[in-house]
Amino acid sequence: MDLADGLLDHPYDVYRRLRDSAPVHRITGPDGTPAWLVTRYDDVRDALADPRLSLDKRHATAGTYKGFSLPPALDANLLNMDPPDHTRVRRLVGRAFTPRRVQGLRAPIRRTADALLDALGPHGSADLVAAYAAPLPITVICDLLGIPDQHRLDFRVWTDSLVAPDPARPEAGKGAVVAMLEYFTRLLRDKRAEPGDDLLSDLIAVRDDGDRLSEDELMSLAFLILFAGYENAVQLIGNSVLALLSHPDQLAALRRDPGLLPGAVEEFARYEGPALLAIRRFPVEDVTIGGVTVPAGETVWVSPAAANRDPARFPDPDRLDLGRDAGGHLTLGHGIHYCLGAPLARAETEIALAALLERFPDLALGDGELRWRRSLRARGLVALPVTY
Question: Among residues 123, 187, 238, 285, which is most buried (max CB within 10 A)?
Answer without folding.
Answer: 238
